[in-house]
Structure formats: structure tokens, C-alpha cells
From TrEMBL:
CDD domains: CBS_like. PANTHER family: CYSTATHIONINE BETA-SYNTHASE. It is found in: Mitochondrion outer membrane. SUPFAM superfamilies: Tryptophan synthase beta subunit-like PLP-dependent enzymes. Residues 60-374 form the Tryptophan synthase beta chain-like PALP domain. It catalyses: O-acetyl-L-serine + hydrogen sulfide = L-cysteine + acetate. GO terms for cellular component: mitochondrial outer membrane. Its cofactor is pyridoxal 5'-phosphate. It holds the Pfam family PALP. It comes from Ascobolus immersus RN42. This is Cysteine synthase 2.
Amino acid sequence: MDRNSHALTIAAGVGIGVALTLTAQSLVGSKSVTKSTETGKKVQQRKPELREDIRNGLEECIGNTPLVRIKSLSAATGCEILGKCEFLEPGGSIKDRVAANMIKTAEEKGLLTPFSGDAVYEGTVGSTGVSLAIICRAKGYLAHICMPSDQSTEKAQLLRKLGATVEPVSPAPIVDPNHFVNRARTLASNHTASTTKPGRGLFADQFETSANWKAHYDGTGPEIWSQTGGKLDVFVAGAGTGGTLSGTTMYLKEQDPTMKAVLADPQGSGLYNKVKYGVMFDVKEKEGTRRRQQVDTIVEGIGINRLTKNFEAGMKLVDDAVRVSDEEALAMARFLVEKEGLFLGSSSAVNCVAAVRTALKLGPGHRIVTILCDSGTRHLSKFWANQDVGESWDMTLDDVLLANEKLVKPEVVERKVDAFHSEFGP
Ligand SMILES: Cc1ncc(COP(=O)(O)O)c(C=O)c1O
């Protein structure tokens, strides 16, 4: 074969190959069909692959929430700041995962029987109560929620609408039998002992049960690992029971021991000093200026002044802590609405401030994942009572980071909360 005919053979071969490839591609692409528009123009339309995707009830809609790039915070810090959208859970918060796992674990142990009168008792500041209430309804149990009476009113109202019994309990120290958690435990055992009440009582025990951190070890952690393609530098989260921080960190560090975990702690909580210096302590206690029996902040859901088993489970894996003031959290919540249309609750705002401070400490180029725990709709009468975003578009990240200097005094926030209640009721 001379040079020219060799070249021709190669050209023909390549031509046939290209033709075959194009035919194969058009066959693979046969999921798209050609349709005529009203103007007679032909357009390609993709036909969706037919695959049944039906969840068997509300319980199967929990988890697999999106991970969103928070563009404004990422651009301002040079780090990629990602938020796990737990406010999109069916019960509106990250606590759906925990409530579902606590009930599943109890069922596996034979401690709950549907439609037998069995009731789940829990002491909670609200979010876990809502999650328990909806899952109990879905599965044939009753829910009895004890909560501190100083929490935002919409949570108690919502719980009642969901058919739960709500018992507001005056704030008290954890050693007091009337502390909301102790009260729930007592009521559960009274129910089981009762000869007149049908069914049994189960104390869910979110602060101490391992079913809490395991929900994040089996769910939140693997989801974040998969959604980031295994590429993240830091996980940032606040701690109420500590289940989210411990369970998620445990899983992520098993995959990549170089990943760092950072606690986001609101003012008034003792966990910051526990992580940084090994001592559970908050300066408000020393000053004698603490205004509340519980953690002295308007932030709900995170911050605590005792060590729980769920926090202890992952405590040694937590590398650093960031303390966030109420003013910074309020400014961040407002910033996220103004720049992103993200209307979030107080713990999410604390997490985002801590994520930003971590980004600024590490410098550009890192990927930081945090949790967007619940929506602002749960916090209208307290955390959000003081602020309306309106049409403004003028905040900068400095307004958040320097918020302490422009202090919105706590007394002012409290006055606004009182004004809200006198206008809209308790
Ligand atoms: C709104 C909200 N965010 C965050 C948390 C903290 O989660 P964890 O209990 O896993 O520490 C809670 C806990 O109740 C919560 O209610």
C-alpha cells in the first residue's frame, strides 16, 4: 500500500468511526424527542427517565437535604462556605433525623407499639418536640413535650396543632426535679407505672441517648462526605445536645483525619471554654450578671452549661471553638436574608458567623461546611422580633463582624420582645 492509499484508509476508518460514534450517541440520546413549537420551530425536548421514586410516608422524607454554597459569605472570605439545608426537613429542622432514630431504636428494642396508647415524653426547647410530634403522629404514638416557659411561643403553638401535649415548665437548674428534662423523665415512668392509662411511656432522652449522635453518624456525616466529593477542610456546628457535632465529626474524621471540627458557641454557653481550656465556664456566671436560669442568650437550640453524653461522644475530636454574641448572630441572620434570601433561625446564624471567623483565620482557599438548622419562621417572636430587613441592600460582612461594637443592647431586644407579645399575644 502506497502512502496515499494508506492515508485514505485511515481517513475512511476515522470517518466510519465518527459516524458510528454519532449513531451511538444519538441512540443513547434517544431520551430526547423533537417537538414543534407554535411557530413551527423544531426543538429538542428531554424525556425524563421513568423510575418510580415514592417515599413510604413522612418518615422516609427525612434526610438527604441539599448542600448549598452561600455565595455572599464565600465571596467575602475567599473560602467556599457551604450550608446543609436542614431547614428543609419535613419537620423543619435537623431534629427530624434524631427523633426518627430515637423512635426507630425504641421500636427495635420492643419499647413502643403503634396505636397501643404508648406515648413518647421529651424535655426540649422545641425543635425536637416538633420532630417527635410529627413522627409520633405518622407512626401511631402520642407525644408529650415539656419545654421551658421562656422559649418562643410559636413552637408551643405549633406543637399543640400537631396534637402533642405541651407542658411549659418554669426554667430551673438541671438538678431540680422540675427541670424540663427531669419532668419528662418522671412523667414517662409514671405513665408506664399507671394502671389506668393505656400503653407505656418512653422517655426519649435526646441529651443522653446514643441514638442521637448515631443519627448524624449514619446520616448527616455520610451525606456531607458524598455531597462534597470527600473534599472539605472544616466542619462547623453548634451544640445543644451535641449530637450533630459529635456524630457528624466522628464520621467525617474517620474518612479524613486531617479534617478539622469547630464548635460554634453562643454567648452564655460554657462549651467554648470546655473546648478551648478544658473547663466548663462562662464569664456571665463570674460577673453575676446572668439574667436567665438557662444559657444567657436569645439564641435557641444551641449552647449549654453541662456536659451531655452526646457532646462527650465527640468532644476529643473538636479542634477549636468560636464564641458568637447575640449581636453578631442577629446581624448575620439579617445579612443572609439581604444577600441570599435565606431566612434562618438563630442557631444557623451562629453557625454561619463561626464559619466566617474560621474562614478568616485559615485564609482563602478552604472549604467549610456548616449546618442551617432551622428556618426563621420558628423564631419570629424572639430572635427575629427586633429586625425587619425591608428593602435594604447595604450590609457588608464587616457589619456582622463588628456588630459587637454597634451593640444592640439585650435590654432593647427584650423590650422589643415584650412589645411583640403585647401586640400579638403570648
Ligand atoms: C434549632 C436547633 N439548632 C441546633 C440544635 C443543636 O443540635 P444538637 O442537639 O445536635 O447539638 C438544636 C437542638 O435542639 C436546635 O433545636
